[in-house]
């Protein structure tokens, strides 16, 4: 099978816009649509409806906020004529059930749905260094590989079924949320004892407690107090709550997950909308006992 010659992109938000910009650097024409006009990257063509994207693209990428929106888009695509044989690659984080629902809706009209969330944050999207977690036919991943390589440094095929990509993405984001919250508590403990933050980070970074919060988020976003990792706290909370829900549904151990989810709900409640998730440090810092 040859690679798609025409591409579409729906959802040009925090992650979608830089991913679309990297895809636009490739040889295939790219049609883009977002509710907010003017977000299409250079090299792409902005259109005024999802129908125009789907009609003009062999493969359409989605980067949307949640499962309800993805399934609304899937339902709209299913009502369009002439969509059989097309592919939808959904890079949103929506949970396994929502991915399965979207897949069923599209399969009924002959559209292949790929559950392919991405990880690496906005900075990774800008650098084309993100990972894609592909839950769907490997043959389609192979067919799209030249396109994937435009925006992604690490592509993983995790299974043939929709929902499998979501499972891996949610467990990854749970681990990120856990390391961020645990590292914040640990650093605050060290600061209480008069140790300089940079010193704490230097020690832990080369010791057994190292993680991405310690090696990246703290030195680059929290220590300089720029809080600009490029991922919103409400999105982290959404993902952790999804993880908690699906762990309960699966019946796998979830004690730590429940505690981490409670922390992130409190952080989300304490921060204004679209606050960077590294601002968890400010929230917990203010709660330090006198």
Give an account of the 3D structure.
This protein has 290 residues and is α/β, with parallel strands linked by helices. The protein folds into 2 domains: 7-160, Rossmann fold (3-Layer(aba) Sandwich); 167-286, N-(1-d-carboxylethyl)-l-norvaline Dehydrogenase, domain 2 (Orthogonal Bundle). Helix content is 52%, strand content 13%. It has helices at residues 16-24, 50-56, 67-79, 96-107, 121-127, 138-143, 145-151, 164-192, 197-205, 212-222, 233-250, 255-270, 280-286; strands at 7-10, 30-33, 45-46, 59-62, 87-90, 112-115, 118-119, 130-135, 152-159. The strands form 2 sheets. It has a 6-stranded parallel sheet, with helices on both faces. The chain has a 3-stranded mixed sheet with strand order 7-8-9. Helix 8 (164-192) crosses helix 11, helix 8 packs across helix 13 (280-286) and helix 9 (197-205) packs antiparallel against helix 10. The longest helix is centred in the middle third of the chain and has 29 residues, at 164-192. The radius of gyration is 20 Å and the shape is elongated. The model has no long low-confidence stretch (mean pLDDT 97).
């Amino acid at each position: 099978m040859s690679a798609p010659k025409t591409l579409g992109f729906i959802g040009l938000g925090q992650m979608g816009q830089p991913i679309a910009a990297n895809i636009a650097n490739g040889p295939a024409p790219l049609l883009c649509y977002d509710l907010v006009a003017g977000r299409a990257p250079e090299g792409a063509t902005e259109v005024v409806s999802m129908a125009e994207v789907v009609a003009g693209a062999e493969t359409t990428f989605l980067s949307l906020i949640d499962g309800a929106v993805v399934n609304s888009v899937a339902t709209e695509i299913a009502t369009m004529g002439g969509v059989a044989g097309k592919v939808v690659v959904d890079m949103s984080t929506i949970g396994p059930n929502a991915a399965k629902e979207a897949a069923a809706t599209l399969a009924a009209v002959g559209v292949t749905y790929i559950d392919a969330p991405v990880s690496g944050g906005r900075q990774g999207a800008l650098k084309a260094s993100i990972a894609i977690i592909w839950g769907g036919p490997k043959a389609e991943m192979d067919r799209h590989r030249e396109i994937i390589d435009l925006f992604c440094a690490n592509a993983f095929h995790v299974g043939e079924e929709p929902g499998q990509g979501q499972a891996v993405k949610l467990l990854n984001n749970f681990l990120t949320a856990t390391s961020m919250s645990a590292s914040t508590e640990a650093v605050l403990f060290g600061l209480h004892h008069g140790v300089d933050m940079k010193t704490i980070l230097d020690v832990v970074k080369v010791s057994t407690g190292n993680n991405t919060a310690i090696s990246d988020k703290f030195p680059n976003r929290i220590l300089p107090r720029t809080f600009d990792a490029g991922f919103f706290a409400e999105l982290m909370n959404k993902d952790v709550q999804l993880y908690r829900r699906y762990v309960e549904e699966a019946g796998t151990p979830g004690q730590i997950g429940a505690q981490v989810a409670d922390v992130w709900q409190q952080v989300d409640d304490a921060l204004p909308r679209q606050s960077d998730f590294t601002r968890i440090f400010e929230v917990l810092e203010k709660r330090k006992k006198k």
